[in-house]
Amino acid sequence: MLEVKNVTKVFYSEQYGNLTALENVSLFVEKGEFVSIIGPSGCGKSTLLEMIAGLLKPTSGDICLNGQSITGKKGAVAYMPQKDVLFPWRTIIENVTIPLEIQGVKKARARQEALALLPIFGLEKFADHYPDMLSGGMRQRANFLRTFLFRKELMLLDEPFGKLDALTKMQMHKWLLTILEQLKQTVLLVTHDIEEAILLSDRIYVFSPRPGTIKGEVIVPLNRPRTQEMITSSTFIEIKKTIIEFIKGLT
C-alpha cells in the first residue's frame, strides 16, 4: 500500500546551515499491516510521518500510496500527531466529527455516524463531555476516533501513548489490540517503546541516529489476536533481544 522510496530530508538554518534529518530511507507497508518505526530521539521518525502526511516535502525521493505518488499531497492518509489535537471548547462528539465535517458530511449525519462508533472506542458515556473532563487515556481514545473518521486506508500514529503513565499505557495497548481486530486498519506507528512496538506490530524498522537511516527490519512472528500475556513469552523476549542488539550497534 505505502512505499517510501529513497527519501532524504535536509533542513537549512542560518545558524547551523544544512542539517540532514533523514538519508536515503526506503520502506513499505502492506495493506492490513501494523508497522512500527523505533529509533533514538532526533533521528527523523516524526519528520518521516509528516512527509507521508504531506505536511513536509522530501528533499529527494518519492512517497507512493497504492502506486500513486502522494509526495507533498495532504489528505491522502490519516495522521495523529504527538500533540493532543482536541479542541477544548468543543465536546467530544463535536471534536471527533471534525473530519466528517471537513469532508462535507452534514452535521446531523456526522453526529449519527460518530455516535455509532463511540461504544467501540469506549466513549459512549462521554459524547457531551469536554476534553478537560476526561482522563489522558480517554482523550487518546477520542483522538484515535477522530483520526479514524478521516476514513483513510492508512493511519499514521506518532507516539500516541508517549505521555501516558505505565498503567494507562498498558490499558491503552489492550484496548487498541481489540480495536485493531475489529477495524482491520493499516497502521504506521512511531514509538520509542520496544515492547509496545513488538506487542502491536507485524514488522518493525529500526532507525539509526541522525541522519536517520534504516539499520534493521524485524519480523514479529506472534500470532494474532495479540494479548499482553505474550510479553513474557520466549518468542517475545528473543525479538526484544534482537532489537536491543540493533540499537546497541548504533551507539
Describe the structure.
By secondary structure, the chain is of the alpha/beta class. The protein has two domains: 1-31 and 40-77 and 153-232, P-loop containing nucleotide triphosphate hydrolases (Rossmann fold); 82-151, no CATH class. Helices cover 33% and strands 25% of the residues. It is built from eight helices and ten strands. The strands form two sheets. It has a six-stranded mixed sheet, sandwiched between helices. The model has no long low-confidence stretch (mean pLDDT 90).
Nutshell version of this structure?
The protein has helices spanning 45-52, 92-96, 98-102, 107-117, 136-148, 166-183, 194-200, 234-248; strands spanning 2-13, 17-29, 34-38, 60-65, 68-69, 78-80, 154-158, 186-191, 203-207, 214-219.
Number of domains: 2
Structural class: alpha/beta
Compute the number of strand runs. Answer: 10
Strand order of the largest sheet: 6-7-8-3-9-10
The number of helices is 8
Architecture of the largest domain, CATH level 2? 3-Layer(aba) Sandwich
CATH topology of the largest domain: Rossmann fold
| CATH class descriptor of the largest domain | Alpha Beta
Q: How many whole angstroms does the radius of gyration measure?
A: 18 Å
Mind telling me the CATH superfamily name of the largest domain?
Answer: P-loop containing nucleotide triphosphate hydrolases
Largest sheet: 6 strands, mixed
Q: Span from first to last CA?
A: 33 Å
Estimated helix fraction: 25-40%
Ranges with pLDDT <50 over ≥5 residues?
A: none
| Beta fraction | 25-35%
Shape: globular
Order of helices and strands: EEEHEEEHHHHEHEHEEH
